[in-house]
Every structure is written in structure tokens, then in C-alpha cells.
Please model this.
Amino acid sequence: MQGESLFFCLRDGELVAANESNNQDARLAAADSWLVDDGRVRALDLHFARFRSAIARVAPDHERYLDKFFEAVVAALPRTGRWFPRIEFHADAASEHHLHLRLREAPESQNTATLWTLDEADPRFDSTIKGPDLSLGQQLRRRANINGADEAVLLNVDGLLLEGALSSLVWWRDGVLCAPGPNLAWLPSVTRELVWQLAEQMGIKTCFESVKPQSLNGLEIWLLSSLHGIRVVTGWSELPDGPANAEHADAFNRRLRMLAKALD
Model:
């Protein structure tokens, strides 16, 4: 990939190198990203499905381009090295080209994470679509970093746990894998869906809870994302006794890695 642009747009059914500076006024209306490790990807079909669902909401007239776009994206993904590509839909009435691929080298994976709780209610514009609030999520994560943590935790107006700024949260209570319920506003997570499927295959019970952070005191807590898979939470100032040591993460991470498939 050396010497080539890492930003592309769909033009006449093909991805061509684009000048990102021409898109400075565009609004990111939908996006999706995943890890590519030496040409292997986990649940790429689910990422495409989530992006398709977002396009159906924000730009239904562009759904007819998606099959060609996805085909071109797969062909363009590198088969060697670690990458964290992102597909994007730019809402820009002045441009004819709205679908983009951004190729980015993947940062190093992490196995653990510490948490910091945002001291205001969830400020996102639309938590159910990935894209419009990505920049805000990055800002919130930087605030967590300033406060000595890896990720910011978001709560609703009633103080109930939602998710991380750029990740999902799940926890273990009495041998049951738990997560915030579907009645709460959180971003549909591909990794969380895979973890739920693995739990079912392993005969492990799952449930949904509407809880405040303090109720997770002394429990095993995970942070989920496509980039890192499962990160075990090792610290959170909300918890007087801290989180519990991980008992289940290794088994699930092994199974997650086995789900990665070669692009070819």
C-alpha cells in the first residue's frame, strides 16, 4: 500500500483514490469498522449488515450502491498486516460521491481497560447509528484518558448504565452474562452479538439489566469492541471494591479469534 492514498470513494462502481481535503464540509452520517489481521476478519457480514441498516435510515436512495461497494471494499482490503478499515457515508449535497473506504493501520490490541464515568447524561446526538457521534466519542475517550482511564462510560438521564464512548459493556452476575437491556439507547454491537452467540453455544445464561454502575461492584466486567475483542476491566472509580478478576474472558477470546475468516 506504500505510496498510495488510504482514502477512497466509490465512483462508477469502483473504489478510486480520493482527496480527503475535498470532503472537509461533509458530515459523517454512517460508518463501520473492523479488524483485519493478515487478511482475516471476524463477522464482516455483520458489519456490512449494520452499515446497510444505517444507510436505510439516513440515505435509503443509496442502498442500491451497497452491493458493489461492499464487493469493492473486500477487494481493496490488505491481505497482510494489521488494519482497522472504516467504511463511511458522507452526507454532502455538493458531492456526487458519498461512499468511502478509509484504510488505517490498527493500533496494538489491549487485553485490559480502566473506566471513567462521564459526569453528565449521554450527550450523543443519535446513539443507535454508528457515525454521527464518532468524533464526540473520541472526545469523550480523550477526557477519560485525561482522568487516567482508557474509556468513558455513558449513563442516561436516570443514571443507568448504557455503554462506553466507543465500546460496549457487559458483566457477569452469579454465572450469568449480563448487558444493558434493549429498552436503553445503545449502539448495536457486532462483538456483543458474537459474545451472546458464543454464550448460547456454551450453555451459558444471558440476561439484560437496567442498572447503575455501583451495582457492578465486585463483578467481572468486560469492555467489547471489534478492534480489541474482549478487554477485562481492571479498574473503575465507581466501584468501592473494584471489579472481580476475570474467570471467563480467556475462553471467550479464544472462541472469538476462531471466528475470524480469510477474506479470500
Observations:
- Residues 7-102 form a domain with the D-amino Acid Aminotransferase; Chain A, domain 1 fold (CATH 3.30.470).
- The first strand starts at residue 7 and ends at 11.
- Residues 87 and 240 are 40 Å apart (CA to CA).
